[in-house]
Amino acid sequence: MRIYEPDQFTLQALNNTSIELALDVPNEVIPTLAGDPAAATAWVQTNVISYTPSVQFRYIVVGNEVMPTDPISQSVLPAMHNIQNALAQSPAAAAANVKVSTTIRVDLLGTTYPPSAGAFADSATAYVVPIVQFLAANGAPLLANVYPYFAYIGSSGQVALDYAIFGTGGRVVVHDGVLGYQNLFHAMVDSVYAALEKAGAPNLQVRA
C-alpha cells in the first residue's frame, strides 16, 4: 500500500495489520528536509517512528515523479540522505528495516525500445545517476511509475492496443534477443532495468 503524504487516520487504521506501507514525502516538503537535517529528523519522528512497530513501513518515498527540470530536483538526493540518517539514528529497531527511495517516470529514459537498449536520457543523467548510486549503496529499490496507456497513445499507431492492455493471450509480440514480451508493461519495466545497468547499477531492483 502507498499513501502520498502522511495521514493520521490512515496510519492509525494500519495499526497492527500485516499491510506494508510506502509513505511519500510530498514534493513540496522536500526542499525543507534537504536543507535542514533537524527538520528531516522531526519529520521521521512524527510520521514514522511514532507509529512503529505497529505500522509496517517498507519505504519512505522522497518525491513522486520529480523531473530534472523541476526546481526541487536538486533537493531530492540531499533529502534522501537526511531521511536515511534520521532513520539510522533512531533507537526504534523497526526503523532499520525501512528503505528510502524515490519514484521516477519512465520519461526519464531517452531510449526504451527495444527494452535491452533502455537508457536514461542525457538530460536526466546528472539527476538520476547519483540517486541510483545512493539506492544501490543502501540496498533500496527504485520505484518507477509505468504507464503503458501513455506509451500507447503516443506511439502514433506503432503499438498495438492488445499489447498495451495485456490482451495478447500469451502471444509474444516483441522479440528482443532471447527475450519475448507479451505486453508493453513488462517491456517498459525491463527498459528501466537496462537503463540501470548502463548507469552502473545492474543489481538494483525496480518496483513498478
Can you give a write-up of this model?
The structure is a single chain. The chain has 208 residues and is an alpha/beta fold. It has 8 helices and 10 strands. The protein has helices spanning 8-13, 30-35, 37-47, 73-89, 122-138, 148-153, 161-164, 184-198, and strands spanning 2-3, 20-25, 56-64, 99-105, 109-111, 119-120, 142-145, 174-176, 179-181, 206-207. Helix 3 (37-47) packs across helix 4 (73-89) and helix 4 (73-89) packs parallel to helix 5. Keywords: Glycosidase, Hydrolase. Its EC number is 3.2.1.39. This is glucan endo-1,3-beta-D-glucosidase.
What is the secondary structure topology, with strand pairs?
Elements: E1 2-3, H1 8-13, E2 20-25, H2 30-35, H3 37-47, E3 56-64, H4 73-89, E4 99-105, E5 109-111, E6 119-120, H5 122-138, E7 142-145, H6 148-153, H7 161-164, E8 174-176, E9 179-181, H8 184-198, E10 206-207
Parallel strand pairs: 1-2, 2-3, 3-4, 4-7, 7-10
Antiparallel strand pairs: 5-6, 8-9
Helix pairs in contact: 3-4, 4-5
